[in-house]
């Protein structure tokens, strides 16, 4: 931050005063130099990266890393799903079980990308971090609250560079939104509304979904795909595409999109943990999968100078939510029905899925508006953010120390879908105080042969 910017902030009597004392580095989030990393390399050297999950999202994760680094090993239990990646890297060794890959190439691997289904994110990341490997893990980081806390602690314990795959945290617009709110432009924020069109457009999630069993395809190692999850017969209703709908393997629309859409509110409002979460509306409740459509309410207490805030999450929307105070016909969020809206005492701010198109409402208010002085550093790009951290540079914007607490409160909403009425959350104790059955969902169960490496 320049001397001119410092003076500007002093003159404006920064709205939230001492709230950020010691909390935001001078250069902003991700500006504090990291500690010496295991396997440190200079920025001019290339990392040797292995992929755990090479199909689906694993293809883009691997490709993005390959722009500047070496891909030296690929792992995916489904040869057909990973075929495109295998063709892209024809000479790279392939595996179906990441444990075998890590054991065989432990001395060559510097870092891993974890792009398998949600239920194996935590286990795969822990196996890698315990071996001193840097980890890029796809959103929603993990499937359970316990795993999120474990990964945050482990990233510090092993001194590795980490990043969750929620690109919104790297988006300029998300950081501009935070700075607008911190400047006091819209006053005290007491409501946030966030929404997504998932699952409706991308996978079936309704009472009609029944996991009928079929023989395991020849191209799939079903036991490796299940990993630590309970053994069960193969069903094409689950793998390879629609596992996200099933609580045993995914987190529904929250797991798919909330890490993107709720990232800006988490950053801008420094949300911490809620005191209550409730699924206030359910439609299309099925026996095997999450409800087709939900509305979830999170209540957060006061946080320093921030007032208590209620956050509303809407999924499977077919049109943007109707929110009091927003004129009819006003575009909020993005045109693809994903986004968030901050309601303050003196105005509103809206952003798209990844924090893009951040703007004050009504739109006319943006015409002559000048953004406040920059407080947060700007990312060089989501993958490069992590790669820079792996090489001893600044911490990534969504390091597990940030992603772990964020995902922990978000996943409480996944649990709320299983119950009626509010669930009271005690962050200090790490439990629900009014529902013992809900506490059973906080930690996964691991089948024999798959231990949690701590």
Give short descriptive properties of this protein.
Dihydrodipicolinate Reductase, domain 2, 2 domains, 454 residues, alpha/beta, Rossmann fold, globular, nine-stranded mixed beta sheet, six-stranded parallel beta sheet
Could you characterize what this model shows?
This protein is of the alpha/beta class. It has 2 domains: 48-169 and 385-399, Rossmann fold, CATH 3.40.50; 171-376 and 406-439, Dihydrodipicolinate Reductase, domain 2. The chain is built from 13 helices and 15 strands. The strands form 2 sheets. It has a 9-stranded mixed sheet with strand order 13-12-11-7-10-9-8-14-15. α5 runs parallel beside α6 (145-158). The radius of gyration is 22 Å and the shape is globular.
β-strand amount: 15-25%
Q: Please, how many domains?
A: 2
Radius of gyration: 22 Å
The major beta sheet can be summarized as: 9 strands, mixed
* CATH class term of the largest domain: Alpha Beta
Based on secondary structure, the structural category is alpha/beta
**And the CATH topology of the largest domain?**
Dihydrodipicolinate Reductase, domain 2
The strand line-up of the biggest sheet is 13-12-11-7-10-9-8-14-15
Instruction: Note the overall shape.
Output: globular
N-C termini distance: 39 Å
Model regions low in confidence, pLDDT < 50 over at least 5 residues:
1-38
**Share of helix among residues?**
25-40%
